[in-house]
Design a protein that fits this description.
36% helix, five-stranded mixed β-sheet, seven-stranded mixed β-sheet, 262 residues
Length: 262
Amino acid sequence: MNYQKICQEVQKIARETGAFIKKEREKAELNIETKGSNDFVTHIDKASEERIIGELKTLLPEAGFIAEEGTDNTKGERYNWIIDPIDGTTNFIHGLSPYAISIALQEDNELVIGVIYEMGLDECFYTWKGGQAFMNSEVISVSSAQKVANSLIATGFPYSNYSRMEAFMESLNYFMKNSHGLRRLGSAATDLAYVACGRLDSFYEYDLKPWDVAAGVLLIQQAGGHVCDFNGGDNYLFGREIVASNSNTFEEFRDIVKQIMC
């Protein structure tokens, strides 16, 4: 399989869908549904996912889908696309950036293509197995921060699962006092893309879904960073928790998150 060629086509699909999303957002009132506590979906999320899936079926007919809105969850024997049509829907509803399209391809159990298109700044982050990581044709890499104390860290706030709030609040307290600061942007896919390009040094969050993180995981790995779950293992795609960082601070950051959150 020519991963680079497929990645190029996925970028086009992401950008075209992004243009569709912007146009739809401008011309219509949002039809907002509630999936759960503070968990929203709009008619544009669903229409965008259907559009992406239709294009991807043409690109790779044998592949299945793991998609947030469930418009097609047919499982592929070897290949599966992991899709979030709008990551950061709450931001999107309020007209606030960032919000992004996230598309990844999994071959067996390996991520081989990752594309994140952040619509607010018109930035497309992408990578493929055997390639480098890019943003709008420019090679990107993780930051060179040497310590957590010199790091800018991002996280996400839980919106329905508050079972780990005590430990999470402790982690916020620690990083507020022992880093350059904390940011909560409202789009996990964008957070991960920003770690990959060095704008952020580290990211952690719990209660995430595979479509939130799949493309960003591959971007970070291809850009020279590392990812794990809170225990330091590799159950970050379906385990609903992730730690991501540059190579210099990864072990220190991982150990702090593990000590507080586990």
